[in-house]
Structure formats: C-alpha cells, structure tokens
Design brief:
By secondary structure, the protein is mostly beta strands. 10% of the residues lie in helices and 36% in strands. Strand 1 and strand 2 form a beta hairpin. Bound molecules: copper (II) ion. The site of copper (II) ion has 5 residues, from loops. Its main location: secreted.
Length: 574
C-alpha cells in the first residue's frame, strides 16, 4: 500500500514538473528529395524537404526535444543534416556531419535525429555532406524561450529570413570542377536568395539602377517572386537573419530603417544600432527595427556581396507596410551598402559585437593554444586549402565511432601540429605551396580551456587573401581578439576577456588573425571549419575530439559503415 502511494506521489510530481517546464518532444517526418524548382527565373534542381525549398522552418521552445525521422530519397547519394548552432550536448551522434558524427544516410534509408534544443535563439540547418548546401539543402530553425520565460528585449512582431546563394551549375558538377586538376573554380553565384527567392534575368529595381537588366514582370505567385515581409506601422519588429550561403559574405540593409542588433548565434549581444550589417556564412542575428516610416510606401530589404568582387546583383525583398499593397514597389532606391572591399567598415562591425553584461565570461587562461595557419596550397597539382600544412580528408568510418570503440587505422593516428613551423610570411604567397592530405584529429583534454588562433595568409596568387568564416560544432566560443598580420604570443595580453561575444562562427579578415577561446566540455567529435562550402570541400577544416569515452548511446545506425559497420556485424548487432 505504502509503496503504491509513494509511486503515485512520484508519478504526480513528475506530471507537475513536466507540465511546469512544458518541454515537448516534437515529432517530425522528413523526406529529402531532388525537385525541379526556380529559385531565380531559371529552372534548376534543388534538394527539397517534404517538397519544400528551402526546407520547412522548425519552430520549438527551449528545452524541447526534436525527434526527426529523415528518409533519404535522393536515390544516388547519401545525406546528413547538421543543426547549426545546436550544441548537441549529450547527443554528439546527432550533429549531422558525415564521416565525423555519423555515416551518411544511404539512399532509401532513414535515420532518426533526436536531440534537445536547449537554448532559445536563431539557428538554421543544412546538409553537411559533399556540396549539398550549394544544392539548396537548408532551412530555418527557430527556438523560442521556454514557456513563461522572457527575452531580454521587447518586440511586437517577428520576421525571419534565411540568406543563401545560387548557381545555375548543379552542385555535383561544381564538386567535379573543384576536384579537377587543374581546379576549375566555381566562380561567383548567379543569384543571391532571400528565403529561397531571387531574380537573375530581371531586376525588381531596374528603374533605380543603371544596369541593363529588364524590369521584372511578376504576378507575385512565381517561385522566384520576391519574399514579402509584412509589417504594421509604428511597431517594433524582430528580424531573424541567418546565412547558409555556400560562398558569399553578405551585407544586409533595410531602406530608410535602422537596425538594432540584439542577438548573434543564439546569444544576447550588447545592443547597438547599425544602418547595415555584415552576415557571413554560418552567422545568425536578430535585429530590432521600428516601422516608423510613411505607411503609404513599401521599402527594400537588400543583401549585397561582401569581400569578393561581386558579379552577383543584390538580393531584394520587400518590406510591406500594411495596408499598402505588396505589389506597390518601393519608391526609394534600394539601400546603399559599403563597397565590397571596404574592410575597415566590416572590421568595425565585427568589433562592435560584444556580449550583453551578465553573459558567461571566458576562463582567464587557456590550457592550450593552437595556432591554425590557413593557406591555399597544392597537392600533386590539385588546389587545396590547408591548415598547418594539412588538407583535411575525411575518413570512411565516422570518427565518433572509431574513437569511441578504439578502432585503429580508421584515420591518421598522428595528430596534426598545434602550430605551423615558424618563419612563414603570411603577407606573401608561400615559396613552397605544397601540402599533404591528413585525417588526424586534435585530441582536447576534457574540460580544458582551448585557444585557437586562426591565422590568415596570402593565397596562391599575389595580393590575394580572402575572408573565411570559421564555424565550431558542439560549442560556442568567445571571440577574444582580432589582429592584423602575423599573430605574436604577446598579442594574447590584449585579448578581450571582459565582454567578448559568445558565438559559434567567427570571421578571419584578409591578412589578419582571429582568436577564439572555448571549454572542451562536450564529449564528442566536432568539426571546426571554414563555412565556405567549397573551401571545406578542399580541406579547410580540422577535427576536435574530447571526452569521447564519456559518450553514451550512439545509435548503431549512426556508425553502420566503414570499420564500425564491420564491428557491428561481427558483434551481430546489425
Ligand atoms: Cu574559407
């Protein structure tokens, strides 16, 4: 009797607690499939989810668990999906990185991603296998604050945009071009997309520009008709922005409206006002803006290319003041953006991003400092990107499985070097630009504090150094410093340990360095890489492993390939 009542009590208590937090398991069923679509005014092929491009927006509350059953209907290639910005605490096998956290899901097979979205914020998801991001495999992932909790800023309404870039050449042909000898560079995208929509052969704002593009004749129901952001006058809106571009760095502005930046990569930042903001691939932001302009007009939202000489026209969306008709095109020209090579303004923007007081602060000293030299190199005549002279090649067995189960020969046993040999001149092309392939991992001591200095350098050509936005899986890091030229140990004395932004993506500027600090406290194997898809494809990344012995519950399906697949067969578990 007593036992019965005790368990009844526990049962009731569990019910009360779970309804108080109201965390839900959200079940989603996805089919990933190629589909004919016109992201701009030319038809191409996109990777769609449940017949949608971009994929469906996931909306959840902090603390919810997503249970996502994904079937690969691509027929001729594998697929994985990465949940960008979700740290996968306790579920490293759900991170969606082929060869790192799991085996690519074979054609016709299914996989269940089950993970907790533990923190409110603006995120997105995208393919992390081959060049599937370039093929359009992405969508928004928005996590609201938990029930009864409040954001640290107020707004009346919310809007959301996902930025991307689009090529008329298919992603698989692009992959072949990049892997050819000599490499055939993919070139600049034909079109920039806002929520999957852009215009290539016509211009929405033709009458404002001196370009030869014809004005678009749109009915509004075309797949490439501009995205309409509907607003009411005299309200404050939260605009969520994320960039899943394969290549382009972007600058975003809303004509006649100022923006107040309040969130970056799922973390609060010290609010500041900007006329335009830079958005690198892998970044996400929330900005607030006030609809304080004349309500009888509409306004442009534009995204332009940053950091590469643009051959791609701006992407335009329409800020539609209700009850004005959305077909009533803005009467003012699209907002002006800084010149593509105006790096001082890009740096000023990045330096302005600081954490909101009360945010987690970094440990004062690191246990280890890696200095990762980013170089463009050759291997047997193939063009590659290398880190400390090693171009990352992913193994056939996912690291998470091979490390957890101590399988030897699954990848290079030797770890890559913590720093490049001294004496490298980052301002000049390398005298010997040859490097080697490698699949070794950096093994980080569990719970240790790690600094990574990302050192940019001159590329293969004279006077060329590019922007690289680096993204870390499984963690956020503090962006503790930026500098010009070569990083010197003494530069660490100038790191910002007071209010550095806490993020998952940080940019390195041409010929500069960026320093990040994080705590290796999430058992798993994590990619850290340039978020420019062709750069990653050419080897621009590293792999961190930490506390893998603590990882529990890797589903067999995550590692049923390569040497771990053989292990499972031997054990009779598959
Ligand atoms: Cu890059």
């Amino acid at each position: 009797m007593g036992v019965f009542f005790d368990s009844l009590l526990v049962f009731i208590l569990v019910i009360i607690l779970s309804s108080a937090t109201a965390a839900k398991v959200r079940h989603l069923k996805w089919e990933v499939e190629y589909m004919h679509w016109s992201p701009d005014d030319q038809e191409g092929v996109v990777i769609a989810i449940n017949g949608q491009f971009p994929g469906p927006t996931i909306r959840a509350r902090a603390g919810d668990t997503l249970h996502l059953h994904l079937t690969n209907k691509l027929h001729t290639e594998g697929v994985v999906i990465h949940w960008h910005g979700i740290r996968q605490i306790g579920t490293p096998w759900a991170d969606g990185t082929a060869s790192i956290s799991q085996c690519a899901i074979n054609p016709g097979e299914a996989f269940v991603y089950r993970f907790k979205v533990d923190r409110a914020g603006t995120y997105f998801y995208h393919g992390h296998y081959g060049m599937q991001r370039s093929a359009g495999l992405y969508g928004s992932l928005i996590v609201d604050v938990g029930e009864g909790e409040k954001e640290k800023f107020e707004y009346d309404g919310e809007l959301s945009i996902l930025l991307s870039d689009w090529w008329h050449k298919g992603s698989r042909e692009q992959e072949v071009d990049l892997s050819s000898k000599p490499m055939r560079w993919i070139g600049e995208p034909q079109t920039l997309l806002i929520n999957g929509r852009g215009q290539f052969n016509c211009s929405l704002a033709a009458h404002f520009s001196n370009s030869t593009a014809a004005p678009c004749k749109l009915r509004g129901n075309e797949q490439y008709a501009p995205y309409i952001l509907k607003v009411h006058p005299n309200k404050t809106y939260r605009l969520r922005i994320a960039s899943s571009t394969a290549l382009a760095s972007l600058n975003l502005a809303i004509g006649n409206h100022k923006m107040r930046v309040v969130e970056a990569d799922g973390n609060y930042v010290k609010p500041f006002t900007a006329d335009n903001i830079d958005v690198y691939s892998g970044d996400s932001y929330s900005v607030l803006f006030r609809t304080d302009q004349s309500p009888s007009h509409n306004y442009w939202l534009s995204a332009t290319v940053r950091g590469r000489e643009p051959h791609t026209p701006p992407a335009l969306a329409i800020l539609n003041y209700l009850p004005t008709s959305p077909s009533h095109l803005p009467t003012s020209p699209p907002p002006t953006s800084p010149r593509w090579d105006d790096y001082p303004s890009s740096k000023a923007f990045s330096h302005q991003i600081l954490s909101l007081p009360g945010s987690p602060a970094p440990p004062k000293t690191p246990h280890r400092r890696l200095i990762l030299l980013n170089t463009q190199t050759y291997i047997n005549g193939y063009t590659k990107w290398s880190i400390n002279n090693i171009s990352l090649t992913l193994p056939t067995t996912p690291y998470l499985g091979s490390i957890k189960y101590n399988i030897t020969n699954a990848f290079d046993a030797k770890s890559p070097p913590d720093r490049a040999p001294p004496g490298y001149n980052v301002m000049r092309p390398a005298p010997n630009p040859n490097s080697t392939y490698g699949s070794g991992v950096y093994v980080l001591e569990f719970n240790s504090t790690v600094d990574v200095v990302l050192q940019n350098a001159n590329a293969l050509k004279d006077n060329v150094s590019e922007i690289h936005p680096w993204h870390l899986h499984g963690h956020d890091f503090w962006v503790v410093g930026y500098g010009e030229g070569e990083f010197k140990e003494g530069d660490a004395a100038g790191f910002n340990l007071r209010d550095p932004p806490y993020r998952n993506t940080a940019v390195i500027f041409p010929y500069g360095w960026t320093a990040v600090r994080f705590v290796a406290d999430n058992p798993g194997v994590w990619a850290f890489h340039c978020h420019i898809e062709p750069h990653l494809h050419l080897g621009m990344g590293v792999v961190f492993a930490e506390g893998v012995e603590r990882v529990r519950g890797i589903p067999n399906e995550a590692i049923a390939c390569g040497l771990t697949g053989k292990m499972l067969m031997r054990n009779g578990t598959r």
